[in-house]
Amino acid sequence: MLSAEEIKAIDAERSHYPTAQAVGIEAMKIVQHHRGWISDESLREIADHLGLSVESLDGAATFYNLIFRRPVGKHVILICDSVSCWIMGYEQLREQLQKELKIGLGETTQDGRFTLLPSCCLGACERAPVMIVDEDLHGDLDSEKIGEILADYE
Amino acid sequence: MNRNSMITPLTQNITPNREPPDLKQYAQAGGYQGLQRAIKTLTPQEVLQEVKESNLRGRGGAGFPTGKKWSFVPMGDDAPRPKYLVANADEMEPGTFKDRLLMEGDPHQLLEGMILASYAIQAEVAYIFLRAEYRLAAQRLKKAIAEAYEMNYLGKNLLGSAFSLELHLHTSAGRYICGEETALLNALEGKRAIPRAKPPYPQVSGLWGQPTVVNNVETLCNVPHIIARGAAWYQNLSRSEDGGTKFYGASGRVKHPGAWELPMGTPIREILEEHAGGMKDGFQLRGLLPGGASTDFLTEEHLDVPMDYDSVQSAGSRLGTGTMIILDDRTCPVGMLCNLEHFFAQESCGWCTPCRDGLPWVEKILLGIEQGQGQPEDLDYLTMHTRLLGPGHTFCAHAPGAMEPLQSALKYFRADFEQHIHHQRCPFK
Ligand SMILES: Cc1cc2nc3c(=O)[nH]c(=O)nc-3n(C[C@H](O)[C@H](O)[C@H](O)COP(=O)(O)O)c2cc1C
Ligand code: SF4
């Protein structure tokens, strides 16, 4: 069941749009914020609450990069793989992250602490290479910084 | 050289790493004067006229004249209602980061521009379509919106006038195609972000079938200054035919990557050398994408080209977003193309076949060449794709945009491609 907090946040968004469908993506983001990802059950609950079909909501869910239809770790790392970051050393950073976390792109560490996802341009090209961990942007990355940053996320 | 006399309306309130001005500070610096003037003394038609005369062209990439775009919206008592205004703050074009700096640095400037634009087209509801990753911008915009409601710069009967406007922040869930204006409408409606056929144009039938204007963030940020100080003043800021200043940027191996507000028409050389500090020591310039990933390469011979719409076009590329990506002499052009086309292939919305199937093919050919398995005929296949995925063959401008860096790379860096194929390896590795 959707929690009271989730319902409150979804209904506040509902007042900004003439249709319920327009709130679907935001509603999934709200629920994902609380639960980490969108399970089939969450999807059904949101669809029921907004009066949408599960199929149409899932159609949107699977289209967008930042709706997770599979469980993710406690912290999600989005590493920018677009051109400015690529020029500034994205590939070495990715390799280092993969080695330290012992996972590939799209995977979650054994202890469930991190999920590593590639992302298109994070819009911070002047600080390339960059990555986002949860809510925080980290720029001008090098191999030394990576270790320090990972240590900050328990 | 720093031009002290340079006038920088867009960035005058922006100090890096500092909180943006709140409503009071923004107003003290002259903000919301354009809005006061418009609401109290100008008709919507007069606001539109001023923007038309300013020669403001859209800063989202296509450079369409802003006043002209607004003038297609049905007006008067018989016009369909509600009407909508949308700020396009999706900004997922690789190499582009200007709108983020504007929103984080001076959120009220964007709000004032949106209110003025909404007034000109008499929109009742406005949305900011913001990409999800811009969390700091979201936080600052939310605060600014609340302040503006509190002062009745938003809401019912704005500043005691008959005009009312609701403004909401909508955050996206991530997909490059959401930035395309008709795909953005579908995304806002909660659907898959697939572009819509035009006509009808959004100005006539947009969000939920109602008249809608979609403008880029930087475009809207210019409007308060045009209204507060007039079209003639705005025109004079420019070094070219196109009015105003432009927020230019540079990334890659330059000494000081960043963004700077300069007169429209500032030459590439001046931006690169005086503002970006030139190339990093030990690196030389080989080429540049002047306005994001979907623009054609320019090279050293183009350094004196003024960065305005027509001049960059004459040089064989596009001003695009005005944020340059620099290719240096130690970076492989084929590798760079691989990265670019991987992005475009992955971000295709999949609606039309040439784009959905063609882009992965292009990516695969490029990867083959880069990894030392290229065949001489690969260059013909790539050239064929620049035609088949070019303008007029696909539903939207995504695929043609993807072909711009490719076609120019085949022209300027052909020897690099041939070397890869001849030696069956990447000479940069
Ligand atoms: C694939 C694609 C992605 C786009 N992404 C953006 C974007 O992120 N931001 C933007 O302002 N315009 C983007 N555009 C351009 C918009 O379609 C539209 O031209 C622009 O928002 C209009 O605003 P303007 O007239 O103020 O420039 C994109 C276009 C295409 C084809
Ligand atoms: S060109 Fe590509 S992105 Fe545009 S509609 Fe076709 S498939 Fe979608």
Order of helices and strands of chain A: HHHHEHHEEEH
CATH class of the largest domain in chain A, named: Alpha Beta
**Which structural class matches the secondary elements of chain B?**
alpha/beta
**What is the oligomeric state here?**
heterodimer
- The CATH topology annotation of the largest domain in chain A reads as Glutaredoxin
Number of helical stretches of at least 4 residues of chain A: 7
Nutshell version of this structure?
Chain A: Keywords: 2Fe-2S, Iron, Iron-sulfur, Metal-binding. The complex is a heterodimer of chains A (154) and B (429). Chain A has 7 helices and 4 strands.
Itemize the secondary structure elements and their pairings.
The complex is a heterodimer of chains A (154) and B (429).
Chain A: H1 4-14, H2 24-35, H3 40-50, H4 54-61, E1 75-80, H5 83-87, H6 90-101, E2 114-119, E3 131-133, E4 136-138, H7 143-152
Chain B: H1 23-28, H2 33-41, H3 44-54, H4 66-71, E1 84-89, H5 98-105, H6 107-121, E2 125-130, H7 135-150, E3 166-171, H8 181-188, E4 212-216, H9 217-229, H10 231-236, E5 245-251, E6 258-263, H11 268-275, E7 285-289, H12 309-314, E8 323-328, H13 333-347, H14 353-370, H15 378-388, H16 398-412, H17 414-423
Parallel strand pairs in B: 1-2, 1-4, 2-3, 5-8
Antiparallel strand pairs in B: 5-6, 7-8
What features would you describe in this structure?
The complex is a heterodimer of chains A (154) and B (429). By secondary structure, chain A is α+β, with helices and mostly antiparallel strands. Chain A folds into two domains: 4-62; 75-151, 3-Layer(aba) Sandwich (Glutaredoxin). In chain A, 45% of the residues lie in helices and 12% in strands. Chain A has seven helices and four strands; from the N terminus they run H-H-H-H-E-H-H-E-E-E-H. Chain A has helices at residues 4-14, 24-35, 40-50, 54-61, 83-87, 90-101, 143-152; strands spanning 75-80, 114-119, 131-133, 136-138. A four-stranded mixed sheet of chain A has the order 2-1-3-4, with helices on one face. In chain A, strand 3 and strand 4 (136-138) form a beta hairpin. In chain A, helix 1 (4-14) runs antiparallel to helix 2 and helix 2 packs across helix 3. The longest helix of chain A has 12 residues, at 24-35. Chain A is elongated, with a radius of gyration of 17 Å. The model of chain A has no long low-confidence stretch (mean pLDDT 96). Chain B is of the alpha/beta class. Chain B is 42% helix and 11% strand. Chain B has 17 helices and eight strands. Chain B has helices at residues 23-28, 33-41, 44-54, 66-71, 98-105, 107-121, 135-150, 181-188, 217-229, 231-236, 268-275, 309-314, 333-347, 353-370, 378-388, 398-412, 414-423; strands spanning 84-89, 125-130, 166-171, 212-216, 245-251, 258-263, 285-289, 323-328. Chain B starts with 22 loop residues before the first helix and ends in a 6-residue tail after the last helix. The site of flavin mononucleotide has 25 residues of chain B, from strand 4 and helix 16. Chain A: [2Fe-2S] cluster binds at residues 80, 85, 121, 125. Chain A: GO terms for molecular function: 2 iron, 2 sulfur cluster binding; metal ion binding; NADH dehydrogenase activity.
